[in-house]
Amino acid sequence: MPCYSSPMRKPNWTATLPLLLASCGAEADLVVYCSLDQVHSEKIIQLFEERSGLNVSAQWDVEANKTIGMVNRLLAEKSRPHADVYWNNEIAQTLRLKRAGVTAPYFSPSAQAIPASFKDSEGHWTGFAARARVFLYREDLPGQHAPPPRVESMLLPEFAPHGGLARPLTGTTLTHFSVLSQQQGKDAVLQWLREAKNSGLSFGPGNAAAMRRVCEGDFPWCLTDTDDAAAARRNGYPVHLLYPDQQEDAPGTLLIPNTACLILNAPHPENGKRFLDFLLSEEVEAILASADSEQIPLRPTVPTPEHIQLPGKDFRAMAVDWEAAALELEARQDDFKELFLE
Amino acid sequence: MISSLIRSSKPFLATAAIITLIAAWLPLIPVLAPLFSFQAFQDLADPRLQSLLGRTLWLSFCAASLSALLGIPAAILSHRIRLPFASLAVLLLPLPLLLPPLLLAQAWHGLTGMDGPWAAVFSLGLCGVPFVALFASQALERQSASAQESALLIGGPFLALRTWLRCVLPAAFFGATITFLFTATDFAVPDYFAAVGDKFSVYAAEVFNGWRSEDLLSGANTAAPLVLLAAVAFYIALVIRDRSRHEESGLGKGSPPIDSGRHSVFLSLLLWAILALVLLLPIGRILWETGAAGPEANGDWFSRSADAFQNAIERGRFDLLRSLRTGILAGAFTLLLAPFWAHFLLHRKPGRRTRLLQVALALPLLSPSVGTGLGAILIWNRPLTADFYDSWLLPPLILAGRFLPLAVFLLVERMERIPRSQDDAAQLAGTPYPQRIFCYLLGPQRATWLLSGALVAVFAIRELDLAVLLPAANPSAAVRYYNALHFARDGFVAAFGLLIALILFLPVVLHYLHQNLKGIKDS
Q1: What top-level class would CATH report for the domain A30-130+255-309?
Q2: Which domains does chain B possess?
Q3: Cβ of B485 under 8 Å from any chain A Cβ?
């Protein structure tokens, strides 16, 4: 019986093997899980690699498709950790890791000048380079609809139909409303959200999506993060920022820092500490402030570009008990979900 | 001893089953465990969840119907009617599968400003058209020439159309079921279209939020009803497909395309209108976005677009290379595994047990990939298997296991064309089992065999959740792409998305050119 064709013909392995093996690198000296935007964080990790001579394996998180990401991976890997350091672009999930016993204490000498309110008293995490929760708005759209001066005023009839924000189910918006719930009480915040849902406010899947809608002219303002606002400006859109809650009787603008922590039973703890010392340095805060994401340094001594607004100097930041806010986040997640997933 | 072993199918099927167990079924154990508990279904008493599930099923049904409505004519026009540039249309039709649905959704929003649940149906339905067209065209190629010729002689083109539809519908239903499954498990696209106007949510968003809870596997509880419903839908599709097999023998010479006569222009326009909806319009918008920017941006469109492509190549080339490696390996595993499964399923008596086995094989595809990823961590991240967990072999294996069903069902569709007597004769002649499979059965169907591997490779490269969760899969094009998408780097995202699609599409174009040149040379 003839063989019709030649699917079993010997393949040209000399051509395919190099492609297949091309990126099988050497074993890593340090594994970093990172939730900050890859385009910014990879430069910093590369700089550390160059200076330390260590081979660093970096793994990135993604929020666009709403994966459960690195935090759940760290929880799943708890019995045999793969990572040495977790660099989170916010704080609430880091506190969740601490409570779950995933993190190890380490007081980095580089972090001494970081304000105590952005550090764990037990050394399980340290905050640095923050984002602020701001109103992004356009003045060139018809109607001249300015954003409200306070976050709580968003649902007022003169503002609500013209603005948007992310649903408080993930990311910094979830953290923001958990902080508000912890400070103002859950009933007040849940009632506010119920009214907001029916007020005409738009609720999108994330901060970047809300920013994109403002750029496209779907609505003239949104509540978002400063790094998203920076992306809009970089893409050439005529947008402006308003730091909310600056009145005397208002709590101030929420600042959400990056956080970094050492992983308990990490495979390379000493290298992890070296990386943390580098990451928490003033130099890295300065790099992040000058980068496209325009992160806000927590230390006043860090040199920053002129257009970066600084807490204490250009705006008043909200005082937050992060441990309590993170506990509130766990408690409120289901309430928010029931409100917004129906 | 060895020669009798290689003549028998059992050792090979056992090996295929063991590899499938490692790649596909073991990581599912933590995810599927709730299917056997009452607890997972108790929550469905909540009216909110009932409403979410009902809406999800309705939207998925509508998207699947749209994909069938466009996919069936696309398959018939491109495969059964002689139209100018029809072969180019055949080449372009699967291209949307290379692009992430969220990118296509954003392109449609950019083009039309659409929002709300119907926008999600429209966008996801269009994403599913290639599935329907692919399975329908395989069924059409299986149709015997005599059936078509008889229909043409007796009743002209309209009777021929009826025979085509009868031949195509079960396969199209199967393709539409895949659209249904992909739509039911997608929440990024509905979420995107729910930002303005009608606020709505879907059950997949509830599942996602379940994964975020303190209890790692509570997402599995939430996902259980959706997995069960998907399995039932899949089972029904198999029943319909099995029934159609009895009606259409599928043996003999394949039927050639017929002349369209004076309707040629209209039918060509119809085919290209479908292609415009499925591919050309959104891809045009994505291309435009490579250089699009606000009124205060520097430079013109061309310079910004060139920068975006340069940026994409500079930043993404190594990730793309790693993704290609993972995709090629996943495709290669599939090329070796899928034929054994397809042959085994074809030679089993059609019935409930065979269909249940097929549902079991499809379970990785029906289950949320986040759960599969977490399951893979819990199963393989142990001291004894640590090296395997860390290795770059794990991701392609898990990805091959997840997308294996697509390849198996595509091959089953085509292998039915081979007369059973041929395989029996080879067996009687003592031909080794692999030779029977790869030479006699797959030899004439080599294009479909390669297509099945390519399809798995493409889906492996596109897969995001597993790329985030599995160590060796993380540095990948998918992670870089979605990371940038989140942070609104629109030019980079559009350019990188097109670059990925172009690179994946290149082998198909080369194959097409090679075939055409060969055809010219032969004639």
Answers
A1: alpha beta
A2: 1-30+326-473 (1.10.3720.10), 44-285 (1.10.3720.10)
A3: yes
